[in-house]
Amino acid sequence: NCGNRAARQITEADLNYYDRIYYMDRLNAQYLRRLFGDKAAKCQSLLSRDVADPWYTGDFSQTWDDIVVGCTKILEEI
To answer: pTM of the prediction?
Structure first.
């Protein structure tokens, strides 16, 4: 259970506070570059490809698997 969580727009304060920021797809990458310019270099893709979006695919299992792979990669890096 993740408690009371809600999506919100990323801010420059987030960019300054967090060591790493991961995005899930190319549209997020474009948005981050547009919003933060050169500072968006701190942001990186969770995978080398887009994470499957269950809104469009209806396949929550694939999305889960993609996130597990990406998070495993992060843990191996740190």
So the answer is: 0.82
